[in-house]
Write a structure and sequence with these properties.
GO molecular function: hydrolase activity
Protein name: Putative hydrolase of the HAD superfamily
Radius of gyration: 18 Å
Strand order of the largest sheet: 5-4-1-6-7
Number of helices: 10
Helix content: 25-40%
Distance between the termini: 21 Å
Number of strands: 7
Number of domains: 2
CATH architecture of the largest domain: 3-Layer(aba) Sandwich
Shape: globular
Largest sheet: 5 strands, parallel
Order of helices and strands: EEHHHHHEHEHEHHEEH
CATH class of the largest domain: Alpha Beta
CATH topology of the largest domain: Rossmann fold
Keywords: Hydrolase
Length: 236
């Protein structure tokens, strides 16, 4: 393998819990909700799938189905899809829905998986090209910079910047081209068999990790080093 592509959410980083997300926005807005109401609103937001990088919605309403299916193709579609889901849940101020969407772009809302730095640094130090390939509607580069991982990433290939989303092979092709890498010698690492598995159509090898809270997945990325010659014995 001469290059490795990584998904962002659920692979290298994990979004905060829905309850933490709502608490942070309420605190910033200076709004209080009784604890039972806050917890119930958080449960409803989670069921609605309003938090990108969180759980999938229990149901996508018919009026949002078209936008939802294409949500990662542009910033406008992404915002419309997720604020549309959020607005299904009553909150004490309608402006809180926009504040929730803004919060997801804050580095404070994201935690790198415990082994992300070790793996990215090892790849970088051995000259292995690294790209982040993400279905997303906003720029995660500030998240990588704030957490000190940006120096280990050579390219970002983001669906909303190209108008195409995984599993479309074109997005993976752009990433390989950005790294000057042969897809047949490239590894794709992600948490979605449907989306990230699309890299196999180009001939990429694909390695999957589980979409879990960061504390529950301390070392799932380390096997990536076993798949790249000369990296398996690198120290932490």
């Amino acid at each position: 393998m001469t290059a490795v592509l990584f998904d962002f959410s659920g692979t290298l980083f994990r979004i905060e819990s829905t309850e933490s997300w709502l608490r942070a926005v309420l605190e910033e807005a200076g709004r209080d909700l009784p604890e039972p109401e806050l917890k119930e609103a958080a449960r409803a937001l989670e069921a609605a799938g309003a938090l990108p990088g969180g759980v999938e919605p229990v149901r996508v309403p018919e009026e949002l189905a078209g936008v939802w299916a294409r949500r990662d193709e542009s910033a406008e579609l992404h915002r419309a899809a997720y604020t549309g889901m959020s607005r299904r849940v009553p909150l004490p101020d309608p402006d809180l829905h926009d504040a929730l969407y803004a919060r997801l772009m804050s580095p404070a809302a994201w935690t790198p998986y415990p082994d992300a730095r070790q793996v990215l640094r090892a790849l970088h130090e051995r000259g292995i090209g690294v790209a982040v390939v993400s279905n997303i509607g906003w720029d995660p580069r500030p998240v990588f910079r704030a957490h000190g991982l940006d120096p280990f990433v050579d390219a970002y290939v983001l669906s909303y910047e190209h108008g195409v989303q995984k599993p479309d092979p074109r997005l993976f092709s752009v990433a390989c081209a950005a790294l000057g890498a042969d897809p047949r010698r490239t590894l794709m690492v992600g948490d979605s068999r449907e989306a990230d598995g699309g890299a196999a159509a180009l001939g990429c090898r694909v390695h999957f990790v589980d979409h879990l809270p960061a504390a529950d997945r301390p070392n799932a990325l380390l096997p990536v080093l076993d798949l790249v010659p000369g990296l398996a014995s690198d120290p932490a």
